[in-house]
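Internal tracking record. Fields below are filled automatically when a chain is submitted to the structure queue. Please do not edit lines marked as system-generated. If the sequence contains nonstandard residues, flag them in the REMARKS field before resubmitting.
Queue: standard
Priority: normal
Entity type: single polypeptide chain
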Amino acid sequence: MIKLIKDKKIFSWALYDWANSTFATTVMVAFFPIFFKKYWASNLSAVDSTFYLGSINSFSSLILVIFAPLLGSFADLKTKRKVLLFSFCMLGCLSTVALFFVQENQWQIALLFFFLANFGFAGGNIFYDSLITFVSTKKLMDKVSAFGFALGYLGGGVLLVVNVLMITFPSSFGLADKVMATKYSFLTVGVWWAVFSIPVFLYVKEYSLPISNNASKPISVFANLKSTFLDIKKSKYILTFLLAYWLYIDAVDTIIKMSVDYGMALGIDSNGIIKALLLVQFIGFPAAIFFGWLGSKIGAKKGINITLIVYLFATIGAMFMSSITHFFMLAAAIGLVQGGVQSLSRSLFAKIIPYGKSAEYFSFYNMMGKSAAIIGPLLVGLSVKLTNSSRVGMVPILLMLIVGFILLQKVKFEASINKT
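SYSTEM-GENERATED OUTPUT FOLLOWS
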């Protein structure tokens, strides 16, 4: 880890995870859904506010699914990965800061800025992920990817602690009340995200890469996109991995997004849920580092297998959860493997994609993740609605994990990875 910190380009790249993960923790998961219902949409019924919030989340994912491949193709063809990363980063930062100025009952404006911030966050990750090929060799990629996620967990956790203290003790921070403290929390996220993103733009060098030794780049974005799509269809190991990833990351993301709702349905209060979220963040930091090391020793695929097995047992355990102690045990288990499955999936994919087409291939990778973000919560919601049981809602997650795990075993990555 010391070696990674001393490498300026690796550390600068990883700091972007430290920067933007605060949006995921403080805004997306912890405070925006609650503040939206209680302040910005206080003039709406609980049913209507939930509908609008869920719709805007799905809509932002859908828009990214549609445009991600085109943006990725353009980034590779024109060598514009950093330019697009900067554009999406600024969109996310400024939109998050704008939430500070939204007044009570202005739910339409709040949703607009949340949509733009969410789009900036997710879109920027395509180009951030693709830049890993510029800062790491394939031999180091598991550790470098894990290092980024580890800093993300730590950074997200540190600012979340500060934000929780601000909201709990607003007068200690010179703030009038919890409403102003929450608004200032959104402001701190936008500023933090912008400031700690600066190193990636200063010290990570992007350059034009040849796609192969025998071919030149297509002359248009659409031709490039068509070429990549056909290559993915022909490359069975890439296609099978993307299908496996789509299923198991759908399960993982659904657990992340539905955990708060599941905990509340079982009677766990907001304080308990915030504590569990912090537990995930701070366990996730050393755990991600460990899985990066483990992946470099036994292979990324075997490391992913371990994380999925833990997820399987954790999901089964969640079906029988009955106390806050069980909820914390579940949070600890997720914290141990969440960073591992995310980082090793990213590094494994980066190893097997063609040289010089990182943004385009990662646009498909992120597209699979975003389309999964639409389907998983929908299946859980339908299961709960039809059975009137939150526990039965775990069944779709369990099935996605099992099928994703089986598909992953069918891919022989070793033949496709050229060790460097």
